Amino acid sequence: MENNLEEDKIKTLYLNGLVNLNNIFDQDLLKKIRSAKDKLFKDFPYGQDDNLQKKTAGDFVRPGSYMIWDVIEREPIFSKILENKAIQNLSKRVLGENYTVASFYIRKTPKINSKLNPHIDYQGGLSFSILLDDISLNQGETFFYEQSHKFPPPPFANTKKSFFKKGPTSITGKVGDTFFWFPDCWHGRNVNETNKDTTILMCHMGNLNHPNKDSTGRKVGYSNKQSATENKQKNEVLNRLFKFCGNSPNNVFTHFFYCLIYFKFSKLSKIAIEQRLIFTRNKYGDEAVDNFSITKYLGLIKFSKAIVITAKKLIKSIVGEKGLSLIRKAFK
Question: How far apart are CA 179 and CA 169, in angstroms?
Answer without folding.
Answer: 12
